[in-house]
Design a protein that fits this description.
The protein is about 80% helix and about 0% strand. It is mainly α. The protein is globular and about 45 Å long.
């Protein structure tokens, strides 16, 4: 089932309304959809590198707005919708332990989940369910999602198809390096 869904998303990259499809996928991925928007983002930028910044911007905006839906699900519909989504991703039982300390590190959790392959939707729902400040959530989401999608866009714009293969095969590594750089930057700012 996931493979068929993945193949369908890939086929959308060449469609004349691909940007709208990307926005829709980015939006729902942030709260419930299992396939990340990268699978459409990457072929779209490869096909039209001159639109890399627009494509990354649409992906970022839609993802943050979808994250706000995830936040709402966590805040208002946790028992009805949020818990089943967390259970689907195998995170339901861990949620009680997780929520105890979530708000203390909530902004960092949103930043890390927004950049890495960790399911961002788990953090969006958890943010709402634990009452993380909506402002903190939105700012952290914008920074994280923009970092992720604009980094992919910049690499594909500059280096093209070889980067596509590298990112698709090593997305975890790319995301981890990005997070290390992000934390390193924050640490340097705090020290000086």
């Amino acid at each position: 089932m996931l493979r068929a869904l993945y193949d369908r998303v890939i086929s959308l990259a060449g469609h004349r309304h691909a940007l709208w499809f990307l926005a829709a996928i980015s939006f729902v991925e942030s709260s419930v959809f299992p396939i990340p928007p990268d699978v459409l983002l990457i072929p779209m930028i490869i096909a039209r590198p001159n639109r890399a910044w627009l494509i990354a911007g649409v992906c970022t905006l839609a993802s943050v707005l979808g994250g706000m839906l995830g936040y709402f699900i966590g805040a208002e519909l946790f028992d009805l919708v949020g818990k089943p989504v967390l259970d689907f991703y195998g995170k339901g039982e861990q949620f009680a332990e997780f929520s105890a300390t979530f708000n203390e590190y909530g902004a960092w959790a949103v930043l890390v989940a927004g950049v890495t392959p960790f399911p961002y939707k788990v953090i969006t729902i958890a943010s709402g369910a634990t009452g993380l400040s909506l402002g903190v959530f939105i700012v952290a989401s914008i920074v994280a999602r923009a970092l992720r999608f604009f980094l992919i866009g910049a690499l594909l714009w500059k280096f093209g198809p070889p980067v596509r293969d590298f990112i698709e095969n090593r997305l975890g590594l790319v995301a981890t390096v990005s997070v290390v750089l992000l934390f390193g930057g924050f640490l340097l700012v705090k020290l000086f």
